[in-house]
Amino acid sequence: MTQEQQEQWDSVDDYFTTLLAPADETLTTALRDSDTAGLPRIAVAPNQGKLLHLLAQIQGARRILEIGTLGGYSTIWLARALPTDGRLITLEHNPAHADVARANIARAGLDKIVEIRVGPALDSLTVLGAEHEAHAERAARPEPFDLVFIDADKVNNAHYLEWALELTRPGSLIILDNVVRGGAVTDATSTDPAILGTRSALELIAEHPRLTGTAVQTVGTKGYDGFALARVLA
Ligand code: SAH
Ligand code: DHB
Ligand code: MG
Q1: pLDDT at residue 138 above 80?
Q2: Which of 45, 133, 134, 170 has the most CB atoms around it within 10 Å of its CB?
Q3: Does the pLDDT value for residue 215 go beyond 70?
Q4: Buried b (16+ CB within 10 A) or exposed e, 63-98
Q5: Do the Cβ atoms of 204 and 196 come closer than 8 Å?
Q6: Cα(47)–Cα(232) distance, integer angstroms
Q7: How much is the pLDDT for 169?
Q8: How far does the centroid of ligand 2 lie from the alpha carbon of residue 148, in Å?
Q9: CB under 8 Å to 227, separation ≥6 — which residues?
Q10: What is the CATH number of the domain that holds 15?
């Protein structure tokens, strides 16, 4: 992308965000404290955060799973869509990121709704799977997640998607962030583990009998990227 293009994408994002997804004190502070703590500036853009919020509302979500917390910015957008007795579990392997997120989530008044599980997401997912099984044995219905936001190490995207299928119900929504990466996703000969992981996840959406989905390219403050949406079928 040229600098001129990026400037235009920035100004359109600024316009949309100011109008439709304006920052409040909590969101501003969450980003500022993430910056101060030296976290990478890779949280979703504000208008993307608002999209996650709307999708959770449209979904009527009561339980949300997020993989990749960072400073809790996307977590706040998602958790704000939940009812007061809702639950969001977010998985983060970096304890320093989790500390920043915990403070941001508490300041947002969401600490009763949000639980951060620290450790490699694949380990936390194994634990969540066991909890899910135990619940299924006790009750007629396990408590599935209504929405899963996958936004951690891209190399594991297909594994995360498989776990998401285990932990959801027919009608649940799975969102995969950063599936375009400047167009790199189309490189079938790529040896980049992140690209391979994302391509496997997209192929799984295409092939799996219990998934239907699509992917959309985006431009904006975060450059040229995109996301995939998948709906869990019966
Ligand atoms: N969802 C956040 C951004 C997440 S950035 C937002 O939009 O605000 C990706 C995060 O995933 C980073 O904090 C990184 O530490 C974490 N991560 C990377 N690999 C992981 C793994 N194997 N398990 C859990 N978290 C991981
Ligand atoms: C990266 C990760 C993200 O989740 C994102 O939205 C942008 C960039 C990264 O690892 O570079
Ligand atoms: Mg992301």
Answers
A1: no
A2: 45
A3: yes
A4: bbbbbbbbbbbbbbbbbbbbeeebbbbbbbbeeebb
A5: no
A6: 25
A7: 97
A8: 17
A9: 48, 175, 176, 177, 178, 179, 215, 216, 218
A10: 3.40.50.150
Q: Which two tokens stand for residue 193?
A: 């583990």
Task: Report yes or no: 177 and 194 within 8 Å, Cβ to Cβ.
Answer: no
Looking at the DSSP bridge assignments, the partners of residue 174 are: 148, 230
Q: Provide the number of structural domains found in the chain.
A: 1
Give the structural domain span for 91. Answer: 3-232
State whether the beta carbon of 42 lies less than 6 angstroms from ligand 2: yes
Burial code (b: 16+ CB inside 10 Å, e: under 16) for 171-208 equals ebbbbbbbbbbeeebeeeeeeeebbbbbbbbbebbeeb
pLDDT digits (tens, 9 = 90+) for 103-112: 999 999 999 9
List the alpha helices (DSSP H) in 59-156.
73-79, 95-107, 121-138
- Taking the C-alpha atoms of residue 14 and residue 36, their distance in angstroms, rounded to an integer, is 22
Within 8 A by CB and 6+ apart from 234, the residues are: 170, 210
126 Cα–ligand 3 center, Å: 22
Ligand 2 and 177: CB distance under 6 A:
yes
Q: Which two structure tokens, joined as six digits, stand for 215?
A: 């992917």
* Centre of ligand 3 from the C-alpha of residue 137, in Å: 35
